[in-house]
Design brief:
single chain, alpha+beta, two-stranded antiparallel ribbon
């Protein structure tokens, strides 16, 4: 699915998944990537409901 997406769709998906990217002082190496769905993220807990039932949107 990702390979078939346009560059704009790929960017939108990555922005939806990645909250922050922390760089090393040299600004060439990634130190840490924080995702929106990290378990200890307050905003994620308040924005998304947790349910045992899984489904699709019609």
């Amino acid at each position: 699915m990702f390979e078939g997406a346009t560059n704009e769709e790929k960017r939108a998906l990555l922005r939806a998944l990645i909250k922050e990217v922390h760089m090393e002082a040299d600004r060439k190496s990634i130190k840490n990537i924080v995702f929106w769905f990290t378990g200890d993220d307050y905003y994620m807990k308040s924005a998304m409901s947790v349910s045992e039932v899984r489904g699709t949107v019609p």
